[in-house]
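Troubleshooting: if your tokenizer reports a length mismatch, compare your output against this known-good record of 291 residues.
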Amino acid sequence: MELSALGIFVAVAETGSISQAARRLEYVQSNVTARIQHLEDNLGTPLFYRKKRGIALTPAGRALLPYATRLLRLADEARHAVEDSAQGQGSLIVGAMETTAAVRLPSILAHYHQAYPDVDLTVVTGTSEELIAQALDYCLDGAFVGGSVVHPDIEQELFFEEELVFVTERRVTTLDALPQRTALSFRQGCAYRARLEHLLRSYGIVPYKIMEFGTIEAILGCVAAGMGITLFPRFVVERTAYRDQLCLHPVPADLALAPTMFIRRRDALRTRAMETFLELARRLASPTASG
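Known-good structure output:
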């Protein structure tokens, strides 16, 4: 089987149409039809049911699809490995939580870009759950997430350990005086949000309302304005422009520390770009920071 034929097969399977696959691949439709027929002849079985409108995978086609997708991915990784053979070449896609991307990564990214300017570096932000799913789906080369990950396909390394604190407006000196039972946080899937909700219940601050935001600045700005309470790493809050308008409250010692792990798939390609990134990140991770 030729990789090009498998690529055509995957395109047809994903679009459900010979004509749409031809447009995606910028091929002549008759060429796509002929290549699929040739592949079916080689395998000795039909891969698609031909319908009046579109096509559908046969059982043999459904069986072939994950293998074809995997082979194409491996071929793409092989090309990247060749491109990456020289030091500081290739591409790298790293995921990170908003808090990590905003405070922990800028220095690391700046040094890395200066040392390896030819690496095509992309940073994707999201919740821990989103980043884990994307790493498992090969969409990310690796990601900084909150908390340890238990998954047979994931390997992880501790990079930071954050000291979490409750954050309120400046006038709220104790949680007992909290005027608003509103929690401000990122969307569902955020590791800190899950910890915040658990702590609110343990403090008896129920019922409470959750307001979701997309950025650190929006959350802390609204907390400073008196809209409610949030939970953030101390390292993040102390470096925000809102620091003088906020009051930090300690979290019980057994729940105060939250590890930030770097995760990646065990079977992911070990590129030179990734290895140099991790070497530099380990060197630059602050040894005195609480996170």
